[in-house]
Specification:
5 helices; five-stranded antiparallel beta sheet; alpha+beta; globular; 148 residues; Heat Shock Protein 90
């Protein structure tokens, strides 16, 4: 099965839930396990929150765009913002690194995304935005996995 979608929304915190739910609905035909759904929703949540919070500082005007494809059992998704960008991607991807300690941010977003996805890449330019791309494969649900 192959499918494709795009979703664009204003950079406000409430739209993180919209993105998470829309993407969860998008992957439903893959018949994911509860664990896969949970991991996928977490990746989406972290990527979108980063775009809204760090890319645009929750400005309520700018747009976050998600593009996703399904090819067989693999979902590829990009989350794009045209905001502040990341000066040092390697540093930003280090566990516990945060630019917002005053907001009680854990600095684990990229680490979590990386651990729950099959591949993760980040491209960014200061002043022109960031693209987070990840891939995740889903296993067909079997009777054994349904019983977990």
């Amino acid at each position: 099965m192959n499918n494709e979608m795009m979703l664009s929304f204003v950079a406000i915190e409430e739209n993180e839930a919209l993105a998470r739910m829309a993407m969860t609905c998008f992957i439903t035909p893959l018949d994911p396990t509860i664990e896969e759904i949970s991991e996928f929703k977490t990746i989406v949540s972290e990527a979108v929150t980063n775009a809204i919070l760090h890319g645009y500082d929750c400005d309520g005007k700018s747009i976050v765009t998600i593009h996703a494809t399904i090819e067989d059992d693999k979902v590829t998704m990009t989350v794009r913002d045209e905001g502040a960008g990341i000066a040092n991607i390697e540093q930003a991807m280090e566990p516990m690194y945060t630019t917002r300690p005053h907001m009680e941010r854990s600095g684990m977003g990229f680490t979590i995304m990386e651990s729950f996805s099959d591949s993760l890449s980040v491209e960014s330019n200061v002043g022109s935005g960031t693209v987070v791309k990840f891939e995740k494969r889903f296993s067909p649900v079997t009777e054994t996995s349904r019983m977990r």
